Amino acid sequence: MTKILDGKALSTSIMKKLKSAVAQQKRLITLAVVQVGDDPASTVYIRNKHKACEAVGIRSLHIHLDGEITSGSLLDTIHTLNSRKDVDGILVQLPLPYGIDEGEVIRAIDPAKDVDGFHPVNVGRMMLADDCLLPCTPAGIIELLKSNGIEINGKECVVVGRSNIVGKPVAQLLLQEHGTVTQCHSRTRNLAEVCRRADILVVAVGIAHLINADFVKPGAVVIDVGIHRTSDNKLCGDVDFDSVKDKVSAITPVPGGVGPMTIAMLMQNCVKAGHRGS
User: Fold this and answer.
1) Which member of 49, 113, 168, 247 is catalytic?
2) How far apart are the C-alpha atoms of 145 and 149, rounded to whole Å?
3) Exactly one of 116, 199, 238, 240 is catalytic; which is it?
4) Which run of H or of E encompasses 3?
């Protein structure tokens, strides 16, 4: 019988532990979330992060800037937050308005406060398996696998997607867990054939229902990072869940799989950053 990997339940358990750790802190941990403009999806994501902070006992600051702000003014805001001793974590909500260099903005954040784990210093430390603030979605995927007793060591792992936020770092983290990793993407030749080799298949390519039963081997573990809305306004992933679920040993649902784990890992990074600042 297929196991549904319940990220919501696991994230709730992690958040309870984090709440206990935060309660033992001698000082209040603070996350500053910077929003530029009024993108509706960004507003929803920020609201969810605020609720998570509230649940754990972390103070959240919402710094809402005008969408017409210059890059220089945004960078000044980040530099001010870097220097504030009462701010432990900084998160700039992406995407940013056209004309602002996201890379420059990410590089401006103090790596010790980079709770998204996107700064080149944290990326480099991750590549070296050094202590760092890990990118939240990849870290959540590894935690979801481990907590469900899914062995990575020696397994054939295929990652579909090569983004800097998910695809590349999750491949690196699987490698660090001694998986044998193949990284591919939407332009990979014979993609279905490559995916069918996977004991663990991670799909983060951003194409709704790209992966169906023809792409997976019997008994594989499938992690679906994608999230989309169908024509009838229902959420779905990069994997055709109904087509795949009876063929695999374990699979993440959308919603309720990887998404909640991303938030839990963000809170974990905030607590870690707060400990460093104590």
Assistant:
1) 49
2) 7
3) 116
4) strand 3-4
Write the secondary structure of 174-200 as one string of H (helix), E (strand) and C (coil): HHHCCCEEEEECCCCCCHHHHHCCCCE
Q: Rounded CA gap, 205 and 163, in Å? A: 8
Known catalytic residue at 49 = yes
Instruction: Say whether both 141 and 255 belong to one domain.
Output: yes
Compute and round to an integer the Cα radius of gyration of the chain. 19
Kindly report the CATH number assigned to the domain that includes residue 184.
3.40.50.720
The answer to whether position 2 is within a domain reads no
Each residue's pLDDT, cut to its tens digit, for the chain (278 residues) gives 899 999 999 999 999 999 999 999 889 999 999 999 999 989 999 999 999 999 999 999 999 999 999 999 999 999 999 999 999 999 999 999 999 999 999 999 999 999 999 999 999 999 999 999 999 999 999 999 999 999 999 999 999 999 999 999 999 999 999 999 999 988 999 999 999 999 999 999 999 999 999 999 999 999 999 999 988 889 999 999 999 999 999 999 999 999 999 999 999 999 999 987 65
26 has catalytic annotation: no
Structural domain that includes position 197: 136-259
Active site residue 25: no
Q: How many CB atoms lie within 10 A of CB 242?
A: 11
Residue 11 forms part of a structural domain: no
Tell me how crowded residue 79 is: count the other CB atoms within 10 A of its CB: 12
Residue-level length of the chain: 278
Are 273 and 113 in contact, with CB atoms under 8 Å apart?
yes
Are residues 145 and 222 located together in one domain of the fold?
yes
- CA–CA separation, 115 vs 31, rounded Å? 9
Q: Flag whether 121 is in a domain.
A: no
Q: Is residue 68 part of a domain?
A: yes
Model pTM? Answer: 0.96
- Domains of the chain: total: 2
